[in-house]
Design goal:
The structure is a single chain. The chain is mainly beta. Helix content is 0%, strand content 52%. It is built from no helices and eleven strands. The strands form two sheets. Strands 2, 4, 5, 6, 9, 10 and 11 form a seven-stranded mixed beta sheet that branches. The chain has a four-stranded antiparallel beta sheet with strand order 1-3-8-7, with no helix packed on it.
Length: 124
């Protein structure tokens, strides 16, 4: 059974940075499509960054500010978030889907595995 555990959230001022970490246990991350979603209060969950066939990919709302990376040897996925804005305030989730089938990577139902989430709060 694969488990995803996020950490690294916190409260920061606008313009500051945070780095989220997701530890993948139970299997190698290389066997999965991995990504990060977020959910703000009263809003739908939305994808922000993911690894897919073509490699790292980003939603326009975070492009040039967020960087997704992974350390396969240590079974970790990261999300470096720079120049944070108050609109980035949300609970951030690490997500995974076993490789083998294609799909819509920004569709939350594409991912069968979710972490418990880590809260990011950005104040102006």
């Amino acid at each position: 059974q694969v488990h995803l555990v996020e950490s690294g959230g916190g409260s920061v001022q606008a313009g500051e940075s945070l780095r989220l970490t997701c530890v993948v246990s139970g299997d190698s991350p290389s066997n999965y499509y991995l990504g990060w979603f977020r959910q703000a209060p009263g809003k739908e969950r939305e994808g922000v960054a993911a690894y897919y066939f073509q490699g790292p990919t980003y939603r326009d709302i975070v492009k040039d500010r967020f960087i997704i990376s992974q350390d396969i040897d240590n079974n970790e996925l990261y999300l470096q978030m720079n120049n944070l804005k108050p609109d980035d305030t949300a609970t951030y989730y690490c997500v995974a889907r076993r490789r083998g089938t294609s799909g819509r990577i920004w569709d939350k139902d594409f991912y069968s595995l979710w972490g418990q989430g880590t809260q990011v709060t950005v104040s102006s």
